[in-house]
Amino acid sequence: MDNSKNPYRGLQAFEEEHSKMFFGRQALTEKLYQQVCQHPLTVVMGASGTGKSSVVKAGLIPHIKKLVPRDSLEMLFGKSLRKQWYIIAPIRPGESPLKNFNTALAAGQLLSSAEERIETISVCIGNWFHEHPQSKILLVIERAEELFTICGDRQARKDFLNLLTDLVSDHGEKLRLVMTLRSDFESQFKDTGLQEYWHEARFIVPRMTREELRSCIEKPASARSIGFESPSLVEKLIDEVIKTSEGLPLLSFTLDELYIKSLKAVKQGTRRKRVITQADYQQIGGLTQSLNRRADSEYEALVKIDPEYELTIRNVMVRMLAISGGKLARRRIYLSELEYPEPEKSRVKEIIRRFTEAKLLVKGKDDEGNFYLEPTHDAVVQGWQKLLQWKEDEKETIALQRWLRPAVFKWKNQRDQSLLWNTHPLLDSLKKILNSDNNWLNPAETDFVRRSIRRKNQKKALRGVFAFGGSVLAAGTVFSIGISQDDKLMAQACKLVGDYLQPNSSPQEGGKSGENSFTYPHICKDVPILVGSPVASAPSSSASSSTKSSSPQVSPSPSATKSPISVLPSPTASPSPTISPTSLVSPSPSPQESPISALPSPVTSPSPTESPTSLTSPAPASSTSPKSKIPSTIASRLSAKKFLPSLEVTPKDYYTRGNDRRDTKSIENSTKIINNPNTSNLKRKNAYINRGVVYFRHKKYQEAIADYSKVIKDHNSQTDIAPTKSQLINAYVNRGIAYSSLQEPKHQLAVEDYNRAIAIKSDYADAYINRGIAYSGLGQYEMAVKDYIKAISITPENADIYYAKAHTQSLMEGKTKRAMYNYQRAADLYKKQGKSSYSKNALQKIEELKASLDT
Q: For residues 331 and 781, what is the distance between their CA atoms, to the nearest angstrom?
């Protein structure tokens, strides 16, 4: 006999290679397989120790791999299962779930790099399916509870769960996601995007029946030509398992111990038969005490050698505890956490050796070559009484370690002084530990804490200097305060005006260039290239009024200067019940804003002298340009201000009047260029596009369509009058937007124009978003969602796309929760971009949908 051929796994889960020794779960495996066939998400749940991981890794995966043709799964998916199923190695979330996920997908060649951005992972998998149309993917997330017990970064956890939701939503026909989860952590997933699928995804792993237990006890032994002394011993084992909550892992551990004792007895010559005896069972303490007794024996043996081991074992084991929501679980740690100077280093090394040989701990290496250590099973942390007592005594330590570990890791990698904890409330507690007899801090943690304390002291001393200076200058305090208050008021006033007039800011939100990503008709200048500048920017310096690029490209986020669009449904309480599909995703905070178009990012910003104002009539094709007036509402408000000082006039009034004046000037300039016989064809087509943009802005959609059509009609003509590709793209997309904006929208014509634009430039996000909006207007919601997904793959940080996607899904049967999820994604991105009012509007949409569900 050879211990390497031990048929029992102890506390370790069965892996795929152990499937021949995996008995007692055949019926459950078949049932799980049927569940996976029918649902894109399966959550394999059960209490700790029910064998969730084993039934997936040693049951489901081998079962799929050995399927013969013409079974139910083949009928569901197609031919040749062996070739079609693509199974990724099971993934554990750990402290960095996205990093671990990407590493596994890159190893499985689903991603080109483990550094793939989270926004494009779903797209990469979609591309893989496109290249392998007959294939399916099985993804397994093992121990999903680690997202809460080990991953301390809430945003990373949220992002990862959002990614899983996107994968299930976008690729549910061909992708199967299986998660194993301790049932006591189920409530933690309640408010995630996966909730929509949760009810149908639940797959409960029940406790084993007597017959199943008998099978997993006797059959592995029989496979290794080992017997039990009497049937009564097997029955006793079964009885003990049924009576114990952690029965299955304890059974496996006990059988492993019994096998080793039998092996030793045969080798020592004290036993001739390969048999497991009642005496052996009693000696190890029976099923309920075998684990506890073995752990105590290892502990006592080491403490007998050196009493210092007592504290070292305690510190090592406590590091591997995780508590979340009052629930206890094991935690994987890297061996680098256990690096100490001598003599502690030698003690740690011996503890690891002894406890791994006893199968209480397990060592391993992750995909990046880092060595780790962890308890073999939750049964160790929940069944060793001494460790449970340490857990009660060290709750503060466990909490401190959970916060400290990621901070130290980040500090080690970046060495940024701002990452130190000089203002952190836990620093005082760590300082006490640093100076105590029970100092469990390793060298890296010690360095981090000492530097944090030093920096805190420096800051404190500096504040003392300022306090002293303040008392000396007390006589000048009144004057200083007066100045600072005036400065503060001036700063607030500047910010107010800046929110409306800053060249690269939205009138509602303000902010940096490119922060907004609304889609607008494209405006052309003399150089026909696509750049990401606003259509109509506020007065600005020449440096910021336009941007040029040496090659055609689409800016993923046109500047926020554009007056916001009221997207599909305007997220605010819009006074008009009608929804224009081209009025895209912008949760426009102000209901008075005229809905501008949907998506294409503008070509270039007109200079202040070319930027225009309102219209009273369409511009004729003749040489004279129309005389346009300032809109009466704005004009009268500004005039009345002279006589009614109390009338509230905001910077936006002046901003709007400036835009109207520039629009008038732009119409005049464009018309002169069009009618000038000496104008080049290139400039004339740009002028048509620019004039069409201004017509559109003032809801003169037929005039805009006419101008865009004049550009398009020459695209099959000879070279000297044909438009450039950039002009043609702009004309198609702008005309499509205008078609969908008509009082009686012509969405089908819009779709045809977007198709033509995409045929010229296949990665043009704006065309996909606008086409999605047009499809939504036609009631073709599935087509719309596919276009949004494509647009997200090109501009993944565009909150507007998620907003449009959410609106479309809110119109679909049974997609209300998906709509809420995408509104939340939009809200998060808006908040990240500093657009709080847009974020609030998206959140308001969620509340409205919740209310509709309640009714």
A: 45
